[in-house]
């Protein structure tokens, strides 16, 4: 397992190394440094990993553990599948992407991603536009940014990700809880997830080698 599988990029000084169930059967996560940035990686035996359900879950769980261990230190998350044949190849990519990492860290520092879905009760007849407006009125003022996600079900009325300041997390939690008792949302189930590394608000892609 001589290749490096990348979960995300942090600024130097995070000093991360821990044992866990990682992608591709690895059991240790550590960092590869290049100047002011560190790639958080594990070893893997391929540069083209297959995205199985198990490894996709491991990827997300490692990112969540990194967030917990860095106490809010911003991490630029990578999408599943970024693997490199050597430390040298990885460092070359970090070198070329430094401006993008700098911008991304500036945009997400002190912020987390939270997910909100509103699903109608089975056979319920609802005013979708009114529900969308209600959710926007309650949540948008508390978020730095938000993006719509795929509507993968006819019963899914709202599926959005929100980038929220960590200092606003409690207020955002309360606003989501209030949606469950909102008189205009009686036939809707509220699903609240997170925090996540801010995938939906980072657009940094690095090519596998």
Automatic annotation (TrEMBL):
Its main location: other. It comes from the Archaea. Keywords: Gas vesicle. The keyword Lipoprotein does not apply. Signal peptide: none annotated. It is found in: Gas vesicle. GO terms for cellular component: gas vesicle. Pfam families: GvpL_GvpF. InterPro entries: GvpL/GvpF. GO terms for biological process: gas vesicle organization. The keyword ATP-binding does not apply. Belongs to the gas vesicle GvpF/GvpL family. This is Protein gvpF. It comes from Halostagnicola larsenii XH-48. The lineage of its organism: Archaea, Methanobacteriati, Methanobacteriota, Stenosarchaea group, Halobacteria.
């Amino acid at each position: 397992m001589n290749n490096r599988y990348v979960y995300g990029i942090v600024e130097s000084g995070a000093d991360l190394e821990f044992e866990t169930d990682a992608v591709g059967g690895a059991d240790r996560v550590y960092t590869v440094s290049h100047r002011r940035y560190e790639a958080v990686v594990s070893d893997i035996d391929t540069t083209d990993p297959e995205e199985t359900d198990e490894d996709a879950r491991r990827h997300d769980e490692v990112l969540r553990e990194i967030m917990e261990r860095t106490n809010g230190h911003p991490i630029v998350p990578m999408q599943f599948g970024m693997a490199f044949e050597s430390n040298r190849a990885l460092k070359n990519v970090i070198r070329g992407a430094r401006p993008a990492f700098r911008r991304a860290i500036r945009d997400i520092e002190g912020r987390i991603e939270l997910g909100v879905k509103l699903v109608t009760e089975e056979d319920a007849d609802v005013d979708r536009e009114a529900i969308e407006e209600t959710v926007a009125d309650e949540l948008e003022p508390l978020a730095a940014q938000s993006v719509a996600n795929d509507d993968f079900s006819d019963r899914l009325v709202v599926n959005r990700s929100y980038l929220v300041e960590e200092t606003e997390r409690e207020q955002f939690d309360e606003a989501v809880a209030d949606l469950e008792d909102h008189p205009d949302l009686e036939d809707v189930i509220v699903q609240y997830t997170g925090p996540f590394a801010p995938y939906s608000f980072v657009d940094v892609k690095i090519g596998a080698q």
